[in-house]
Amino acid sequence: MKVSARNTFSGTVSNITKGAVNSEVVLELKGGVSIVATVTNGAVTNLGLKNGDAAFAIVKASSVIIGTDLHDAKVSARNMFCGTIATIIEGPVSTEVDIEIGGGNLVSAVITHGSSMKLGLKVGGHACAMFKASSVILGVA
Amino acid sequence: MKVSARNTFSGTVSNITKGAVNSEVVLELKGGVSIVATVTNGAVTNLGLKNGDAAFAIVKASSVIIGTDLHDAKVSARNMFCGTIATIIEGPVSTEVDIEIGGGNLVSAVITHGSSMKLGLKVGGHACAMFKASSVILGVA
Amino acid sequence: MKVSARNTFSGTVSNITKGAVNSEVVLELKGGVSIVATVTNGAVTNLGLKNGDAAFAIVKASSVIIGTDLHDAKVSARNMFCGTIATIIEGPVSTEVDIEIGGGNLVSAVITHGSSMKLGLKVGGHACAMFKASSVILGVA
């Protein structure tokens, strides 16, 4: 399987909370970092997900918000990764920003050119990437 | 009503599962294909949705992930359509990919230029479009 | 905190409905307009959100759909703002559209160039911006 989504993270399912429609699934990555995903119960059943299973998280670059000065940010987005800006690709409307978050992992975001200018993003600068649990797709090999 | 979202699908509501906050709504399209949407209970009430109602699903192109070699893919995304790539429009950051999924229907996706290159997408090639139930907006005429 | 998301709205929490996994939070803005957000229960707990709290809503421009002739539209998207198109920035694939919704507030959307053409959007024209409750990130200062 090859997908267009720029961000994939491999880990182990460490917790599943089931509601009537959706489930919250926590995926523990190497190094103790976790990703929180909300998917439908049907998806949990289809994938046969249970604690301890190997799984991966897929996140589209367009679902990722870039922030700076987020040290004391209090936001509802359950997933946040901070690091160093590795690449910036500018277009007339959209800008792609890739952040190195350690361990050779990159998080890619597509934001507006206007936001990129406003935030003053530069390669080598510090920035954080955040995304909602509802933006995460889970997969199993 | 005219909306910017590139993807609209007409169908009939075939199932509604209500939770405390969200409902899962299944829309059966012509030919037996289904689309799964999660919307708030408030939306179900506002629209007066019930089984057998005609409704349509709206999906933004930016919510759609393109994949290849997805034949044995196991992902949580509840909606997947496969077909032939009809159009590719390249930009410096973003690329639009339109997939013909039969019956004259197109699914449009906006992905990064980098992903398009990585996947080696070409007009006439086979590809699949997938999107989460939470990315679907429902409407009634 | 500075984020790339183009749309932020300040308001007061006026209602929280808790489910097993997600909560629906209503944020009342000045002038009586409301924004509906669905976030995980974990996020509500992390932020300590309760009725009467000041909070803000963050929405990525890529989550916003632009519509015209929406006066009698019936869609599940819980959030809709109408006004006058203030800016259009065209790219080969993406187009940014900014709508003035009164009180000096702007809502920014990134849509495809093709949709912008199809809708015939022009600066000074009337249009509406809509987004799902699940696209909203909440924050507190």
UniProtKB/TrEMBL annotation, chains A, B, C:
Q: Where is the Mop domain?
A: 2-68, 74-140
Q: Which InterPro entries match?
A: Mo/tungstate-bd_C_term_dom, Molybdate_resp_trans_reg, Mop_domain, Transp-assoc_OB_typ1
Decide whether keyword Glycosyltransferase is in the record: no
Tell me the PROSITE patterns matching this sequence: MOP
Q: Which UniProt keywords apply?
A: Molybdenum
- Report the NCBIfam families cross-referenced here: Mop
Protein's UniProt name: TOBE domain-containing protein
Q: Give the originating organism.
A: Geomesophilobacter sediminis
- Species lineage, top-down? Bacteria, Pseudomonadati, Thermodesulfobacteriota, Desulfuromonadia, Geobacterales
